[in-house]
Amino acid sequence: KVAWFPRNIKDLDCSVAQTLDAGDELESDHPGFNDKVYRARRDQLTDIALKFRQGQEIPRIDYTPDEIKTWGTVYSRMQDLWAKHACDEFKAILPLLENNCGYAVDNIPQAQDISDFLKQCTGFTLRPVTGLLSSRDFLNGLAFRVFFSTQYLRHHTMPLYTPEPDICHELMGHAPMFADPDFADFSHEIGLASLGASDEEIERLATCYWFSVEFGVCMQHGEKKAYGAGLLSSFGELEYACSPTRPAGGEMAFPEYRPWDPYQAAKQKYPITTYQPVYYVAESLSDAKERMRDFYEDMKKPFHARYHPYQQTISVD
Ligand code: H2B
Ligand code: FE
User: Could you give the dihedral angle defined by the CA atoms of residues 171, 172, 173 and 175, in that order, rounded to the nearest 10 degrees?
Assistant: First the structure.
């Protein structure tokens, strides 16, 4: 039996409504767990995501000075690191986002502006979400070139740490890459592959997603450069992944690098709370995409899903 999957972009409203369980409840080890003001603010932003319906304008948010300061702390620390370790595609797109979407140290960009910009570049759009979705629902959105994006900020007491996706991770790490055509196609492939897939296949695709969209590295000018959002939004791990220094006293392990191969990556175990012990290195973003496409075409699914961008629907044959 084939699992339910969205056929029309409007069906994403169901995906979101169905699975928002853990998202709006903070875990007890979250730095904002005991902060009443933080939690009340989270509820406000969560409400926007809950009320959102596909096709609407994403409401603009008046960010507080504290929130802007947290964003700015991350943004300014990342700027130097991006110059050294981000892939060329990211570095080319960032100035466009600064000019068109309000990316700046002292301003948190609005999701609708980024969504409009991405739509012109690759057809990708953003959709607000309250928190973590299941892998299946999250990946299904990519099949419609929709990226689910949280709008709250990490807790201001720990600006360089977040145990969950927040707006810094989404807008600094993910959003810029969706403006790149190869990366957009790559993400779309994973999304199409996830439609109606078995639970085991979803697990394998989510693992591929982890080692590419989140922690992917590629070779450029003979050096390792990051294209994964988990790296591009992480102050510590970006440097660690792209140019680690051999530990003198053994305080930090040295990562292992393997050529990007979705068949291998899909089977690899990974930690979620520490730096990655293994990174998969693609020759380029288009190489990453080609290999992902081979993997998808090899999957034993009973049908082939196709996306129709004008109608924003999926057909199967
Ligand atoms: N949900 C949300 N809201 N954002 C994510 O980045 C996310 C998710 N990532 N659910 C997914 C899971 C990812 O870890 C993979 C596909 O499981
Ligand atoms: Fe992410």
Answer: 40
Q: Dump pLDDT digits (tens) for 146-158.
A: 999 999 999 999 8
Provide the whole-model pTM: 0.93
Catalytic site includes residue 214: yes
Annotated catalytic residue, options 30, 85, 155, 169: 169
Ligand 1 pocket residue status of 109, Cβ below 6 Å: no
Neighbours of 83 (CB within 10 A): 10
Instruction: State the Cα–Cα distance between residues 181 and 178, nearest whole angstrom.
Output: 7
- Looking at the CA of residue 134, tell me the nearest atom of ligand 1: 10
85 is catalytic: no
Alpha carbon separation from 53 to 21, 57, 169, 247, 314 (Å, rounded): 18, 9, 23, 50, 19
Chain segment 202-213, per-residue pLDDT in tens: 999 999 999 999
Report how far residue 153's alpha carbon sits from residue 73's, in angstroms, rounded to the nearest whole number.
12
Residues facing 104 on adjacent strands = 107
- Closest ligand 1 atom to 137 CA: 10
Q: Is the CB of 206 under 6 A from ligand 1?
A: yes
The ipTM assigned to this model is: 0.96
**Alpha-carbon distance 292 to 286, whole Å?**
10
Backbone conformation region of residue 218, classed left if phi is above 0, alpha if psi is from -120 to 50, else beta: beta
198 has catalytic annotation: no
User: Is 308 designated active site?
Assistant: no
